[in-house]
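Entry 14. Structure prediction run on the chain below.
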Amino acid sequence: MGNRMSLLNRMLLPLAPRLACRREAWRMLARSAYTAEDGSPRSAGWERTNRTGEATNQAGRDVIRARARDLERNSDVMEAILGAMERNVVGTGFVLQAKTEDESLNERIETNWRDWCSLHSCEITERWTLNELIALCVRRRMVDGGVLLLLAVQDGRLRLQLLEVDELDTSITVCGKNRVYGGVEVDEYRRPVAYHIKVYDIWGAWLRTERYPAEGVIDLPYLTRPSQVREISPAAATLPRVDDLNELIDAAIEKERVLAHLSVAVEKEQGTLTGSPFYGRGLPGAEPDASKSEQTATELLQQGSITYLKPGEKVATISQAGTSSVVDQTLRTTQRLAGSGLGLSYEAVARDMSQVNYSSARQGLLEDQRTYRMQQQYIIDHLLDVIYPLWLDLEALSGRLTLPGYFDAPERYRAHVWVTAGWEWIDPQKEANANKIALETNQTTLQSICAGKGRDWREVLQQRAREEQLAEELGLTRAEITQTILYEDEEGEENESKP
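Output returned:
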């Protein structure tokens, strides 16, 4: 029992055994069943109260968002994380594939959709295409925790207006019988029914607050608890590490900058004229201008300069130790933790492939792709699948698309899928063989394979048909075409290798 006793009770045991045993018995009874619920001084400061998600986030939401934006502006590590998300979640964009029974109608719908997604059509300020707008939404969700889009109709077309979450009026707490949390009005089921958004004048001054029904607003918040109403930045747990990493890098660079300059100190030997205690006091033996008190002089050493020392002076070099050997390892570890906190591997964030092999790189890529696909599916479910039916309604109403009986049975016209950005594999040959076997054994479809690469399977088939037709007209076999392509690739590699 003595080995398990607390330190204080072990010290008390030789002096007062009964008291020590009594104290130890009470300590054993009061000890927590779980270490995580320990209330000893070792766990002092550890949160022990439970609050709702909204109450927990409300106090620190604005501070976290401000700090996340600061790192977005000033941290290359944070920018690397955001860039990886934008490149892989959005990439070349989301492509619509209409799935009506009429193939020619599918092509017309897709053509009109591409026109609407262009620069001067979908977004009300005409500054972004739809894919650029989606990339901005992905970025703002990662940094701010959410973003708002207002739905509007202008000139018979659907228009989107982006708003930052700062524009929600957080001063309103009640509207009628409903509660308002940070500008979001909810009903008794905590379902958003309206958004209270600030309106500004031309000078940027807050004029009033407008109430927008939830049907006209698309809210894309990052939520982790059922009791949350407003967003919280998903980078909240990562921000302290990224900030510490910035300070570490700045300190290491400043240290190297100091070491790049030669610093010396001039020492004076005791017993010399200049080292005499009477030097500079106007006594016999002092130099003529020594009536003034001597001050320590600092001189600038320049490249190629020659300096002559006074009698009795010698030079001592001041050198600091080099950059700590743990900086590089700390940098790697911190980047790994910062990326993993947002679901990304170290290689995706740091673009450093020096410590991976084929198996580890492939496993990391698969895990990253799962993160990207979750984000892609969120955009599809909460944004694209919301605006597509509204867009199709306006296209049918305006007559830009002829859709007989659309409003009697809109479902048969609204059938569609989205093709997202795909990824190339580390070993294309192994991937191609695996796809071939899966296709021949009916384990996958051409549509799934093409969608994984971000391509339209119909366009692939149509292009292949045109190529086969042209090859037949030119009298070329498939083997000859393959040999020609291989020869051109080898010739190009040979020319690149020449100096």
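The mean pLDDT is 82.
Filed with the rest of this week's runs.
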